[in-house]
Design goal:
The strands form three sheets. Strands 3-4-5-6-7-8-9 form a seven-stranded mixed β-sheet, sandwiched between helices. A five-stranded mixed β-sheet has the order 11-10-12-14-13, with helices on both faces. The protein has a two-stranded antiparallel sheet with strand order 1-2. The chain is globular, with a radius of gyration of 18 Å. The longest helix is centred in the N-terminal third of the chain and has 17 residues. With 269 residues, the protein is α+β, with helices and mostly antiparallel strands.
Length: 269
Amino acid sequence: MSDNLPAPGEVEAIVRQVAREEILPRFADVQHHVKHDGSMVTAADHATQHRLQSMFRQHWPRFGFLGEEMPPQEHERVIASDSGLWCVDPLDGTSNFATGIPFFSVSVALLQHGRPVLGVVYDPVRDECFSASPGMGAWLNGARLGGAHATDHPLRRAIACIDFKRLDRALAARLVAEPPFGSQRNFGSSCLEWCWLADGRFHIYLHGGQKLWDYAAASLVLSEAGGYAMTLDGEPVFQAGLAPRSVIASMDAGLFRDWVAWLGVASGQ
């Protein structure tokens, strides 16, 4: 990393501390309410975002801050920053958290000039911290990711992670009626799903629409681990904007090619 940017280890330490102090103590006793879009938000979402914003401002005051729980008008104002911007999902998988399912994460990316220059995704339940920076590889608790998880599985034997509810109805119906894969999962935390794919815990991925804070850090982890991803329009997934982006991904080049072909997507990359 450049001398004028935070080191991944510094950011990891802050994210671990905040998650342990603000998220885990609340996991057994959750109070929540419903946001305007129908999704849930808890006290842990707000407390975690507030602590991260405060600590990042204290350590690196020159960077702006974009948090999922900010009002939409604030998102629009902050996203225009080009001098450096923290992009944070304080609790990805709130529905899981609020119902006692132990699969959720904190995601932090640092964006500069419209690209991620650092990414950290932390699972406080398993104490697993995924991190990446461009050209420096992807890491899980100090162990390098990638290379060891290529598979000879054909598509018909692959384990797929698919979020059906955000897909076009016709595509979702086709996937149910004529699945090209061996079995299917959906875990409920987009950030962790990217990272689990990077670690070879399933083989192919499909999601119909993620926000910037869902993929900013985790897409960097997958890319630095050697994985492949594009949208259902055949475009690169990462885009420093607020519009949702679809995701097709795999760690294996052959599986990715076959998955994209089955979906009928023409690559524009």
